[in-house]
User: Fold this.
Amino acid sequence: MRSTSHKRVRASERIVVIGGRSFVGRALVDSLRGAGQEVLSLSSSDIDLGASGAEHALASSLRTGDRVVLLAGIAPKKPARSDLLVENARLARAVAAALVRVPAAQVVYLSSDAVYPDGARSICEATCADPSSLYGMSHRVRESILSAACADRLAIVRSAMVYGAGDPHDAYGPNRMARSALSQRRIELFGEGEDVRDYVALQDLVALLVLILGHTAIGVWNAASGEAVSARVLAERIRDAAGADVRIESRPRSQSASERSFDVRGLRAAFPEWRCLPLTAGIARLVSDLEREPSAGGIRPQRRPSPMLS
Assistant:
């Protein structure tokens, strides 16, 4: 279920970003402040949401009527551990308790497409959330905790994998491949790169979050481009952007390939002004950003020869 109000966020209304120093948080805070919006950015150095009494500390920082964006969470580690779910649930419970004490006008939670089962195709907002991983379960539990506290004001944004310079994660996808292409002149695929995924550029995710705040939208929304590609195609597009000398190599698979795609017609109908960058253009921007700002991607790109002319 989802609904949209067309009331715009007024400049005097404050937006609180919990996790404001995260990869997505920094970009969102910069975008909002650049538009003249009053923003309170909170990070773990301000409030430890896993600590005892965290809900009281957070509540004391909130004002009734704030718009609250929750981006903070515990990142998954390998191998997956059950405390990931427990720690993320504790964090969400503290936020929910604070929101009960100090009601927000709107709550936006950045979740993950991992709440959908592996192999799900043509996913839309009505697709049943049935996680196949512990990471997906942790997001689903957090969604439920927040829904119990403020369902009538809650927007859940289930995002496909986000890519962009500055991402601290090293998940199998555009960021890892682009860094490897620039620093090692090679991209490693699982198997032959059969896995099919949708990816969303950081600036596009931020633009969608801003629109959801601006429209006072509630309900479930999938942040995806609708352009699902195989890992092999992704690697080839990164090679096109990084240089023809980049090698694409294969390593044995430890698990079977999976496919996940999205039907974004509902999202585009609700937010027709949202334009998602085509993957080829997004990858070109990612590679360019990593080359110009190596510290953002944690790499030191090698000088590459000019592509061969055909």
Notes: The chain is about 35% helix and 15% strand.
